[in-house]
């Protein structure tokens, strides 16, 4: 049966229409002829639905439909001027409607043909996409692309459910990470950064980059250094003059025998486990919890079991590393309200780097579990090295544990990588919020799409073409993927000098 009529016209409209719905109209997606040439892919629009009211949609793709035939085009090739006329047609996918609270409701029937399509207004966007917090309450990462709408993430979602930042090298991962660190520390959340390339020392200084300065106005940001909030640590001993980063000392309280064996790289854990297990128990009893690695070594040395030598060697190896023999760093100094602690890994010999990180992160995890330090965010750059999908890494177990259990007591991971396909799948899919910037490697794109809820293969083209500073933000309090212009940093970005040096 044919039906006809006019679509309903609401009294209040958000400005001038940018297009009109035509053709076959589906409840999941529909097409509209665009009148406004400024409308782009991933822009948000709103349309009035006959029973539901205003609904939000997103532009999936735009086509120019021309009347120029193949023959016409051939005429043009032969030298004479062929003229064409065309129409701009947008394919729009339905997102739906959300009242002040509750989930998004997607209407089960289509909007009507001939409905006018408008750019989504700010209120509609914020309400439907879940951007309820304002800058003072949340983590202000930037603005919805080409709009004035702030993208503000919920800090407790980030800490409880982790966040990943994925992009190929040079696309703005560390820069964005810097933005998140500034914001989290503003909100009083402690941040611990595993800094591989010496990129985060520059959080000390204000961002005085000329080009970026001009764009600060758009984001309502002013240059500011955070030297007051920054502490720097190193796994290496301090200089003779005691200047420079604080040397890290790690105590092994709370470590299980298996975990120590893992740090020593001992795989065959049979007899070794029981020798070490007994030694740890003895240390606890005799030294009343005030034991360190050298005490455990002395106890193992006195063991009569000849299998002990493996363990003795392993413990001696650990004790040869400065961070196991130095006085232990009080973790309450490293993890403090609003404080940013940079753990410099640049100078550490490679074989010690992973062991140091594994031990420190485990110690932090234990301290957090026991409530000795407040909830905090741990930034893991080059995450594919610390929790690889294949191959061994001493850090892998503890990072996986935090990814799956950290949310129970507030230990957030910020997983930063250029190789999504090489990061442990479980870790990646445990991240509640994703910030995805330009990625071109097909395997990485596949890994992103399969681990991120709300992204589908249609977005893979989009991801390959994202310009620097533009990200797709999805998850957490954000209910649908949002194209976000990442804000300018208040602090100086340290990634650039690194390139010059290397
Ligand atoms: N949001 C942004 N605004 C302005 N410049 C940016 C932004 N994001 C990245 N850049 C610039 O892009 C370059 C690469 O960024 P970086 O974060 O170091 O890349 P990655 O860590 O992914 O290799 C830097 O020079 C940085 O200044
Ligand atoms: Mg980087």
Secondary structure tally: strands: 18
Summarize the biggest pleated sheet. Answer: 12 strands, mixed
Q: Give the name of the CATH superfamily of the largest domain.
A: P-loop containing nucleotide triphosphate hydrolases
Shape: elongated
Distance between the termini: 71 Å
The set of bound ligands, ions and cofactors reads: adenosine-5'-diphosphate, magnesium ion
In order across it, which strands form the biggest sheet?
8-7-18-17-16-9-15-14-10-13-11-12
Radius of gyration, whole Å? 28 Å
Q: Give the number of helices.
A: 18
Structural class: alpha/beta
Low-confidence stretches: 498-502
Q: Work out the helicity level.
A: 25-40%
> Approximately how much beta-strand content do the residues carry?
15-25%
Gist?
With 502 residues, the chain is an alpha/beta fold. The chain contains 18 helices and 18 strands.
Describe this structure in words.
The chain has 502 residues and is of the alpha/beta class. The chain folds into 3 domains: 17-129, Beta Barrel (Elongation Factor Tu (Ef-tu), domain 3), CATH 2.40.30; 139-249 and 328-501, Rossmann fold (3-Layer(aba) Sandwich); 257-323, no CATH class. Helix content is 34%, strand content 22%. It has helices spanning 70-77, 122-129, 155-161, 173-186, 210-219, 257-264, 270-287, 293-301, 308-319, 322-325, 331-334, 350-369, 383-386, 396-409, 425-430, 442-451, 459-465, 495-501; strands at 17-22, 29-34, 44-49, 53-66, 86-96, 116-119, 139-144, 150-153, 163-166, 191-195, 230-234, 246-247, 340-344, 376-380, 411-417, 433-436, 470-475, 478-486. Strands 8-7-18-17-16-9-15-14-10-13-11-12 form a 12-stranded mixed beta sheet. It has a 6-stranded antiparallel β-barrel with strand order 1-2-5-4-3-6. Helix 7 (270-287) crosses helix 8 (293-301) and helix 8 packs antiparallel against helix 9 (308-319). The chain is elongated. 45% of the residues are buried. It binds adenosine-5'-diphosphate and magnesium ion. Residues 173-174, 495 line the site of magnesium ion. Adenosine-5'-diphosphate (ADP) is lined by residues 167, 169-175, 212, 468-469, 486, 488, 493, 495-496.
């Amino acid at each position: 049966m044919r039906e006809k009529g006019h679509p309903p016209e609401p009294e209040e409209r958000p400005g001038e229409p940018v297009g009109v719905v035509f053709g076959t109209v589906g409840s999941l997606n529909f097409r509209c002829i665009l009148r406004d040439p400024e409308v782009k892919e991933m822009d948000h629009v709103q349309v009035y639905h006959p029973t539901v009211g205003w609904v939000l949609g997103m532009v999936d793709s735009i086509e120019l439909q021309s009347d120029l035939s193949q023959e016409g085009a051939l005429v043009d090739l032969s030298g004479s001027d062929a003229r064409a006329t065309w129409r701009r047609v947008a394919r729009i996918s339905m997102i739906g409607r959300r009242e002040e609270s509750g989930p998004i409701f997607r209407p089960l029937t289509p909007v009507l043909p001939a409905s006018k399509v408008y750019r989504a207004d700010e209120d509609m966007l914020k309400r439907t996409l879940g951007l309820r917090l304002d800058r003072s309450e949340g983590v202000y990462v930037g603005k919805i692309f080409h709009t004035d709408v702030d993208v503000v993430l919920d800090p407790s979602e980030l800490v409880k459910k982790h966040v990943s930042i994925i992009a190929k090298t040079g696309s703005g991962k560390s820069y964005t990470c810097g933005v998140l660190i500034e914001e989290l520390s503003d909100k009083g959340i402690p941040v611990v950064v595993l800094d591989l390339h010496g990129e985060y020392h520059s959080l000390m200084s204000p961002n005085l980059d000329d080009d970026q300065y001009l764009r600060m106005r758009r984001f309502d940001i002013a240059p500011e250094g955070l030297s007051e909030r920054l502490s720097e640590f190193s796994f290496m001993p301090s200089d003779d003059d005691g200047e420079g980063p604080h040397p890290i000392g790690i105590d092994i309280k709370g470590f299980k025998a298996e975990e120590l064996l893992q740090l020593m790289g001992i795989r065959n854990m049979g007899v070794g486990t029981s020798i070490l297990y007994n030694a740890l128990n003895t240390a606890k009893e005799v030294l009343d919890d005030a034991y360190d690695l050298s005490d455990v070594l002395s106890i193992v040395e006195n063991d009569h079991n000849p299998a002990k030598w493996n363990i003795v060697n392993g413990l001696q190896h650990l004790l040869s590393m400065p961070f196991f023999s130095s006085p232990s760093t009080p973790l309450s100094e490293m993890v403090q309200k609003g404080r940013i602690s940079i753990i410099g890994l640049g100078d550490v010999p490679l074989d010690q780097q992973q062991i140091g990180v594994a031990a420190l992160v485990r110690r932090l995890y234990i301290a957090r579990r026991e409530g000795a330090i407040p909830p905090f965010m741990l930034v893991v750059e080059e995450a594919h090295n610390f929790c690889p999908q294949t191959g061994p890494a001493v850090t892998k177990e503890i990072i996986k544990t935090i990814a799956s259990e950290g949310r129970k007591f507030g230990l957030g991971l910020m997983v930063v990588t250029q190789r999504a396909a090489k990061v442990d799948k479980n870790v990646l899919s445990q991240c509640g919020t994703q910030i995805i910037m330009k990625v071109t490697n097909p395997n990485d794109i596949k890994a992103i799409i399969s681990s991120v809820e709300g992204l589908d293969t249609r977005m893979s083209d989009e991801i390959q073409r994202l310009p620097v500073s533009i990200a797709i933000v999805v998850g957490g309090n954000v209910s649908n993927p949002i194209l976000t212009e990442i804000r300018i940093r208040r602090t100086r970005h340290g990634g650039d000098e690194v390139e010059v040096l290397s």
